[in-house]
Queue: 4 jobs
Job 1
Amino acid sequence: MGYDLQTVAIPLGLLLNGLNTMLALIPYGRAGLVDWKGGWPMALAAAATAPIGALVQPLLPSGTVLALFAGAVTVAALRALWGARSRPWSSAMGREPSKSGPLLRNGFRVGIGAVVGFVGGLLGIGAGFVVAPAFLSLGYPPKQTAATTALVVTVCSFAGVAGYAPRLDFPVAVAVLSALAVVIGSQVGARLMLSDAKPSWITRGYVVILVGVAIKLVWEASNSVFS
């Protein structure tokens, strides 16, 4: 839409992303899908590093930020595509099959959360594409993965917005209309996932969206570099 990447698009994107996942988190929590105990270590680590990413971002050229953003989404798209083709997601709920101890698992969560928070604050993304594979690697089934990822992304996104607070420059009309769209879309999407969505739908939809966004961003980043 032509808005500045670093002063409008990134902080507004973080705000809407946090609003989206927060609203989706409500029905997920009521359905008992959120692993609060397992999600909070990652969420709190992300909250600590997201403002740092937000403070570092203005020091980088806008073309560099766009290129990094495009690269992150491309990696996520390739990772999702590989995962969808090589490992079908199970729909069964259950305990984590990982044989590592609680200390090691929590250390893994904190490490991922710290990276996710910094990248999210820097690039204006919730980094769910990193969080979801991390929970899957711990043995979470897809619906519990989506629900617990929403917790981490919510905390990370709002912490990132806090880092941008001194220089926020939202167009009020765009912010309000986008927020209303997010309120409607998040509830429709969450209820669809809780009721009728099959794990294969979640996988394929995730891949299609990420691949499409990755292609668009790589094209824009290439134009920015070579123009």
Job 2
Amino acid sequence: MTITAGVAQRFRLINMTTFGTGIIVSLVSATGTATWVPMALDSADLPAAQRRSESAVQSITIGETRDFTIEPRGPGEYQLLVWGFPGDQVRVTLPLHVVASLAN
């Protein structure tokens, strides 16, 4: 997936498993764990007070959806990682390529 630096992107993460009560999702870059802003839980927008930038690591239970926005400041490579529980091996890796904005 390719996105543009400086442009907010909204992601909806969904746990569609029937067995993964605590799937862990994280967004990382070469410098470590990224940050994101939680926007919604189960399609219901969060109150403004809960929309604060936080470390991009989240547990998602069966049937749950969570929406987040990210706004990378510059070009680079990220990975969205999914694993079953803390200490488990990563089960899914989604590369996220950030390109320079046209304004730069």
Job 3
Amino acid sequence: METAKLPEGFTANYQDGILSVTDGDTELEKKMDNALVDVNVTEEQVEFKPLRDKKDIESIAKSYKSHTENLVQGLQEDYVYKMKGVYAHFPMTINKKDGQVQIENFLGERFPRTTDIMENVEVEINGEDIELSGPNKEKVAQTAARIEQLCRKGNRDPRTFQDGVYITDKGENE
């Protein structure tokens, strides 16, 4: 059985396969629905009990414990990803507009490349530096991955064409 402790002032609720953790102000939810893992919520902890003694079922319970700890940690302190835009010949411009990140003039292209910013993720752009922050680790990481994937270069040699936006730092706010 795996157990995730809840800090003082935090509450958890498990209903219809969705675990929600609240610190009083903010609530984060994560779908944790597996027929072979039993989830019990008490005042102080969340227990994940595999219903069979198989390694794959036990690993699901351990993953659920890690997800719960990530939710608690995100409510205590935001996750922060830092990114850097790199270009050699064509100066690209990175903007935030209408809930999207826009990269203009990437490799001299006429039309901007855009991607959506996931909910509850704050994006700050300062020249070529981008900082993403938010309480949900998965949404911050997914938004960073989307921005990084915007700069796919197709069938070009990555040693020569190093233009793009890259993740430089992952972690919590300091």
Job 4
Amino acid sequence: MALGKIKADTLEHSTAGSLDTQYVVNGSAKAFVNFNGNGTVAIKSNLNTSSITDNGTGDYTANLASAMSNALYTGLASARDVSTGTNVVAADGNTTRTVGASAFHVWAAFSGQSNKTLYDALFIDIVIHGDLA
């Protein structure tokens, strides 16, 4: 089977309208991961995520299969623990780590505490937007 290209400026759905293709290329998430951060860390679902590194309690790194073009991408994270009803937040809050184009660092912590005690949440989600290398 021959490989080829499909070139289009607009994608059109029969009932949902149309979309300029630049939004698909520039606006789509370039990576995401949903993983278990409690016990044995394990990826549940992902796109462009090769592995998760468990750096300690509530401290994780998502390693990308294909790197971003630079370290100026946007990464968003959330965490939750439905089994205990615990309110948990996730953020890239470690100022001692260097942001890299091939990995995203995240901390999960109790949201109601002033000292933000790190916590191994059952569900951690990360989404990354930007340009791939």
